[in-house]
Structures
1.
Amino acid sequence: MATEQQEHLKIEQLRQHNADEIETIAGREKENLEGWIPTLASDAEVRDALEKAFDYRGDVTITRKDGSQVTGYLFDRRTGSSLTDSFVRVIPTNERVKVNVVYAEIAALAFTGRDNAAGKSFEAWVKKYWEKKVAGEKNIRIDPEKLD
Amino acid sequence: MAVPVSQAWTVASYVLTQKLKGRKRYPLVLMLEPLFRCNLACAGCGKIQYPAHILKQELTPEECFRAAEECGAPMVSIPGGEPLLHPQMPEIVAGLVARKKYVYMCTNALLLKEKLHLFKPSKYLSFSVHVDGQREHHDFSVCREGGYDIAMEGIRAAVAAGFRVTTNTTLFDGADPNSVRAHFDDLMAAGVESMMVSPGYTYDKAPDQNHFLGKAKSRRLFRAILSNRKKSWQFNTHPLFSEFLMGKQNFECTPWGMPTFSIFGWQKPCYLLQDGYADTFKELMEETAWENYGAKSGNPQCANCMVHSGHEASAVDYNFSSLKGFLVTARKYMFPSAYPDPDAQKLLNEWRPEHSGPLVQIQSNNAVNDELQEVSGD
């Protein structure tokens, strides 16, 4: 679930129109979070940053208050009433396990991985298609990225 | 009948059993995602955007079987990612078939022809090939020139080898109903058993966050496509879901009807929307705040959704919830309507392809020229 700020275009659209009358749904605004290191000074900042990390399409690095780190894909979060009963769940980059990290134990968060979907819209594909077509290329396509 | 009688009977008796047991929420189709890896990179897809270490992971056959047993649904749909990239997919499918699950293996069919010999035809197995429209539309949708031809070749090979083959077509803003109707003709001529069509939905993590149909446009588009339908067309969607798309029925979402299991666990709340994961099916059903989802909830993420995974189960539930619902549905199955509608025909005749959507740009000379000028001016 995205934060309200990330959803604001849809929310604005729904404030002004009945959902049944909408012709085309408002696009979602994706923030550029790659490389971001949020400040975690207040409980609200911690919660908001971890919500964005949950929504992020790349890996993050979490530094615990004991100095240990975990880098991986943050695939889940469970939010309780306080930071001590809220935790995120991460699949580290180097093993197939699910690591739980309690919000209250987190000293720092960094969006260290690449946003894998950024810039790959239909418009980008169409532009690339025509550039290649003009250059005389055949069998034009966007291939998935190499995994190794 | 667009599905074998044995399948219809299995599903009907399963749903009736759930009703007799007084279960308010029950799964109809398990959406099993054994991997997210794919050999396409579609802009509208929300499943292939993960980091490489996630894309390399896959469920084992044992994990798949455990999920199917835990869930208990009579049908298992295997999307992905591209299931044919999973090295143990034949073993997974065979294991599910042995458990008498009706399996829909969703594939883009790029590898179908070469991997067909690894599977055995069965009434329990259908290859559900994703084809998003006629050649130009499909190729643009999957961001690959030539993708349509390979998919159709796969369909023909699977039909010739005696497999059940169905298709799945997702429509985005810019879809041309006349072209979609011609696409249905092409698919039926290729020998597919039945077809499914549904509007696309904004996946949270997909690269493309635009080009999705609002409800008003969806209803107009589907009324144009599905009214005045040809006798040769066979659909494997519930007739009331088809009417829902055409604006003749109103259903709320049933997000628990098609639960999803992947390497992350059981996805809350549904196939399309990621709001966390449960470790067990029981936890998913009991601890998800279901009241927060569906158009009625006011959740902006659900406001626009009309897709089959959320609403087809609602149609099925409706026809087993009252005698009236049962009789209405039985009549629609026994005497399928062509939905004659002169206004829909007029809509179809007057429909002009839009040039704003990416899927139709290749077809328009003006759009092509504009695009070329823009590119050459870069």
2.
Amino acid sequence: MSEILSSEVVIIGGGVIGAATAYFLCKEGAEVMVVEAEDLASGASGACDGFVSLQTKMPGSHLKLALESAQLFPSLAEDLEVDIEYNPCGGIMLATSQEQMKELRARAKALKSAGLEVEMLSAAELKEYLPEVGKTVKGGSFCPGDAQVNPISLTLGLAQKAQEMGATILRGCRVENIVVTNNRVREVHTTAGNIHSRRVVCAAGIGSNQIGKMIIVDVPVLPQRGQILVTEQRDPVLKTIVSGAEYLGTKANIPELLPEDEEAARLGLGFTAEQAASGNILLGSTREFVGFDNSTTPEAMNAIARNAMRFLPWVEDLDVIRSFAGLRPCSPDGLPILGTVKGVRGFYLATGHAGDGICLAPITGKLLSELVLDGETSLDIEPFSLYRFK
Amino acid sequence: MLRLRKTGTVDMGRSSGKGKGADGGRPREGGESLAGGHGDWARAWEVSRRKAVAVIDCRQEIPCNPCETACSKGAIRVGEDICALPVSDPEACDGCGRCVAVCPGMAVFLLDRRAGGGMAAVTVPYEMGEEPRAGEEARAVDGEGKELGKGKILKVTAAGGTAATKLVTLEVPEEWALKVRGVRLREIFIEEAEEVEGYRGAGDCIVCRCEEIVRSEVEETAGHGFRSLAALRRASRVGLGYCQGRFCLEPLRRELAEKSGRTVEELGFGSPRPPLRPVRLSRLGGGDVRDT
């Protein structure tokens, strides 16, 4: 390439985290280049449901992050030119046993004291929110702050807006090396040429480990497969996003809420349901560590279908038209990895969001833009430091 | 259906002109100029101050000569070559109007400027269902079917002898006299095709029936620089409907490849996911996918 590329900030990864970071950096007037190996939203951001779920977060810094993020969605929905189908619909988590009810009740109490509104509903009270639930459903918790969004539109909308504000987006551009001299990032070597930059944000999702190796840092992110079924389009039937208590169990590894069935436990099965703006109902989901294999499997599809009928029997009449699987970037504790890297100035991590990428994208983008430009953040991100694992 | 309005033809009273004629109403360039006709329009214009005369606006060189045979005065000549354009002699014409009635292309009209006062009487054929009545108002339309304005019906006759064809004589200002090719009794129901709501412009068509996505939408999305078919699917929703792209994706892929200068292999096909055809969830949950 004859042209010498340079940028104030290079963001590696064109998923929702990279796009959000680009968006917030551009808002502050930074010069941004996004480097994406494939296409925008081609990884986990394009193969997930649109849950913006608060009640599934751990009380503490995790929930705080999610609460801050949730507050940013309405203004994003207004600011982006793409309709991100943001719907503050609230969310219901269903329990299928008294033990689960007890656990949810305890959690609701903890979440409430942490500032999140959560309300327990009996099986009879559920009727107001949900059409006909399975006989095994004993009740659930309702969180009015939960919402849904179209993850693909969100990613594309953020990227498009960033581009309008001056960001350059290089698609099909693979990062080959990152040059560090005198403990500082200097250059990013890519298939599109070398980019001079003193600030690099790694938002590469499941590719973060590989990027980390280039600066000799181990970023402990593993691909976790999540499979989802998509049904035909229907008139609106689901008023809220819905999940089962086992979903939380597998997500946060809470022993009391893990599935009892052996196969379900192996698949990391947890019930989720949401109706997208298009009318399709997305039924999920699984959590499996199977390397970089993103295929969908008959076992998981069967298990998801069976599980869905257990919670919402009426879905049995729906036609399933598609399945998909996404590889979520999962850190050892399932929480994001945010912040700087010791010994390499100008290198920032924004990865490992696992299944929370969509929900936490706005606040991640905002915090990263603060970190990159000011060196400090408005919210303490120390709990998400890379060094918590060591 | 949106092209219902071959207005010139319809308005002038015939659904199709088999013979020489006004070519569905297409106006001749400079049709309003006096020397524009095949016959001598300048002479006809002069003569029309003294009597009604036939003016011929025929430009189709096809085998047709009813105007010649209909004229008892020998004022219209086609000649031996039946494909030739007719030539009229305004002096010989007695303004009977038979040629107006028999012309299958509605290419003849009568012009009469005797009344003076800046007004002229134009006689055109009319074959539609409604009954035009003398004294009523009617809309004069030009060869394109465009309304020139309202005029008063002076006379309605069946002079042509063909019972279905009436001759309507309309009083119009002199400046329109050579432009009038038909009359319309009612308001038209369909405005210009471009203005019909829901019509997305010529050349556009649905490429994904399930999601109702038209070509221009896909092209617009593709214009944002997506590299693969999978990315285009995600961004546009094309092929994400009930059929899962079985019908639309392959042609779309080939076209994209052509436009982007990439090969179909480079564009990829996304990752085809089960089920290949929609399957009832209860069957999927039944534990045996082979059954579906």
